[in-house]
Task: inverse folding
């Protein structure tokens, strides 16, 4: 008998996106999380056919033991509609947002809570759902604020690309609710749902491009200011 761990499956989501390939343990995890229901179509690469999850020999016993009831998701209390305030998701529709929720974690922070420190290993990006945060550096014991992040913005996005060290501290100015996307979770999106990754990468590219333009403009303004100051001497 073939080892089930070597058999790969794909699922057809309610957003009309095919997810996978994944091994049986990952498929069972999705079932327990409520992402695979009795009526979900699942493709077995071993058999070369699609079948309802509740009719598959590998899964139907699990539905009997769990009653087929969806388990709590990874983002309790967060709805696809609430993601509309996040700029990076502007090109995603409601069904895509609902699917992307399962790849994110929710973080709730108190005022002055530290998200990460300068020099920390970068392995995730964050989206601001509620509240306000600041990026800072300490120079000779004094704080210098580099940027303020408010609802709809993201930060730490370079970490999911190069996983390099953090370039600044980030702290909460007020109570905050953040959505965290780890580099590992994003790799899972690329593997399991490339059609879902495409609009996200488009939004991420637009965000990075906008920041590069703003930094370029700030640099040009600083040069102009310095030249004007020298001429005035």
Result:
């Amino acid at each position: 008998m073939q080892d089930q761990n070597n058999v790969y499956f794909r699922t057809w989501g309610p957003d009309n996106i095919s997810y996978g390939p994944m091994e049986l343990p990952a498929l069972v995890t999705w079932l327990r999380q409520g992402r695979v229901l009795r009526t979900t179509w699942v493709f077995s690469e071993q058999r070369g056919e699609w079948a309802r999850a509740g009719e598959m020999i590998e899964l139907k016993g699990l539905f009997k033991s769990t009653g087929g009831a969806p388990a709590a998701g990874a983002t309790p209390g967060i709805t696809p509609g609430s993601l509309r305030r996040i700029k990076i998701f502007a090109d995603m529709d409601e069904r895509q947002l609902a699917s992307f929720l399962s790849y994110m974690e929710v973080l709730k922070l108190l005022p002055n809570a530290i998200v990460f420190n300068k020099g920390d290993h970068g392995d995730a990006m964050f989206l601001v759902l509620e509240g306000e945060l600041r990026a800072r550096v300490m120079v000779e014991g004094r704080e210098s604020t580099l940027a303020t992040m408010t609802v709809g913005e993201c930060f730490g996005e370079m970490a999911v690309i190069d996983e390099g060290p953090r370039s600044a501290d980030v702290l909460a100015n007020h109570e905050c609710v953040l959505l965290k996307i780890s580099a590992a979770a994003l790799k899972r999106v690329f593997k399991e749902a490339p059609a879902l990754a495409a609009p996200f990468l488009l939004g991420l590219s637009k965000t990075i491009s906008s920041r590069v333009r703003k930094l370029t403009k700030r640099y040009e303004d600083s040069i102009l200011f310095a030249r004007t100051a020298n001429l005035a001497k």
Notes: The domain at 80-217 is CATH 2.60.120.10 (Jelly Rolls). The helical segments are 24-32, 60-66, 94-101, 159-162, 183-192, 194-232. Residues 88 and 203 are 4 Å apart (CA to CA). The longest helix spans residues 194-232.
